[in-house]
Design goal:
alpha/beta, 9-stranded mixed sheet, two-stranded antiparallel sheet, about 20% strand, globular
């Protein structure tokens, strides 16, 4: 056990998520945000007016003062955002909420994200992100930037393409048991994957995440209050965030170019394991932000959940990646590829479900649940959730 002040100080007690096909939300991002928070509060058993902390991450438009006043909060004590990298800060947002509670800066904090095409457009063409160096060379989308790094991972490091395909097929396998998943009722096999059109080499259609309209909210309170509210809180065991040396948004020039940004000495992954006092072999289930399959594979390698190089193919098989009996069940709701994509925050809700024991692809006796935020981003982050027994 470590002496981290964050360990078990706060827990997720309420969650909500819903999504529409992109461009089809009847509501604005603010209205969807409010709906998700009210539903998460009901799930937690707290009044929305009790929420005094508001946390989001890169790309969110509605800050805590806007959301809190709309909820008629009694008092707003904590309102901030994880800067940079879009989904890279998704897991850090949960850690941020836990820090506020552990430090006594807030008592009931909501982490939220909403996306509506009518408000914020699409993420597929990220002109706002890729400026200066990238755009003049025709690189204007996350798919292009991540494809360059993934191609090098395949050719230089020797990771087989089958690792990417297995992650995609595992996502689609899990989606068939999740009625709310966008790909529910649409199974995918190797033949269908191989026949899909190329988007940007080496990414085929199914390697690329969806974009949905929708909203997600998670509510955290102190550990003491969490135990009084319900039987299955998801405690924050440890969280880590940061950027590797040499990173620059304009040039994507990480020292380890094939990394997803979590690796290295004292990097995000190593810090996470050290603060948690456990290792990757003690994780029961993983939700990895796969904006694209290759970057998801790189993130698993960075966390030492999968070996680098050619050996990655030995672990990254559909059998190993699927619940309930795989050695490394991953993205058990269907993930960003087959469930939904609201900037990756739906993965956090599924990580909570696994601790609660309520996933549609439940891993038996899951006690440690890992959520890995967006890879190959300016900021990377991961958070570990667990049951009371693990603390």
């Amino acid at each position: 056990m470590t002496d981290s002040f964050l360990r078990g100080a706060a827990a997720v007690v309420g969650v909500s998520e819903f999504h529409y096909k992109r461009g089809e939300s009847p509501d604005s991002e603010l209205r969807m945000t409010l709906r998700a928070i009210v539903e998460a509060a009901a799930d937690a058993g707290v009044s929305p007016r009790e929420i005094d902390g508001f946390v989001s991450y890169g790309g969110g438009e509605n800050d805590g003062t806007v959301v809190g006043s709309s909820l008629m909060s009694h008092r707003i004590r904590w309102s901030n955002m994880i800067w940079g990298g879009g989904g890279g800060g998704a897991a850090a947002a949960i850690t941020n909420a836990a820090v506020a509670i552990a430090a006594g800066q807030a008592q009931c904090v909501v982490v939220y994200r909403a996306m509506a095409q009518q408000d914020s457009g699409r993420l597929g063409y990220a002109k706002h992100h890729f400026d200066g160096h990238m755009l003049p060379h025709g690189v204007g989308s996350p798919a292009q930037a991540c494809a360059l790094r993934t191609r090098r991972m395949l050719e230089h490091d020797g990771v087989p393409e089958s690792a990417m395909r297995s992650l995609v097929l595992a996502d689609y396998f899990h989606a068939q048991q999740n009625p709310s998943a966008a790909a529910f009722g649409r199974p995918l096999d190797e033949t269908g994957y191989d026949a899909s059109r190329m988007i940007v080499e080496p990414y085929r259609l199914y390697d690329c995440s969806r974009e949905n309209d929708g909203a997600v909210a998670l509510i955290l309170v102190s550990a003491d209050r969490a135990e009084a509210l319900g039987p299955n809180p998801a405690y924050v065991l440890a969280g880590s965030q940061g950027a590797v040396g040499g990173y620059a948004v304009d040039t994507e020039n990480d020292l380890d170019y094939t990394s997803a940004g979590f690796g290295g000495t004292a990097g995000v992954a190593e810090t996470l394991w050290a603060d948690a006092g456990l290792g990757p072999d003690q994780v029961d289930v993983v939700q990895v932000y796969e904006n694209f399959s290759g970057s998801g594979v790189a993130a698993l390698i960075d966390h030492s959940l999968c070996p680098p190089g050619a050996d990655a193919g030995k672990v990254m098989t559909v059998e190993n990646l699927t619940a309930p009996h795989g050695l490394l069940p991953v993205n058990t709701s269907g993930g960003n590829l087959a469930d939904s994509f609201v900037n990756g925050m739906g993965l956090a809700v599924e990580a909570v479900r696994q601790v609660r024991g309520t996933s549609t692809n439940q891993v038996p006796d899951a006690t440690v649940s890992l959520f890995i935020g967006g890879p190959m981003a300016a900021v990377s982050s991961s958070v570990l959730l667990c049951t009371r027994d693990v603390l």
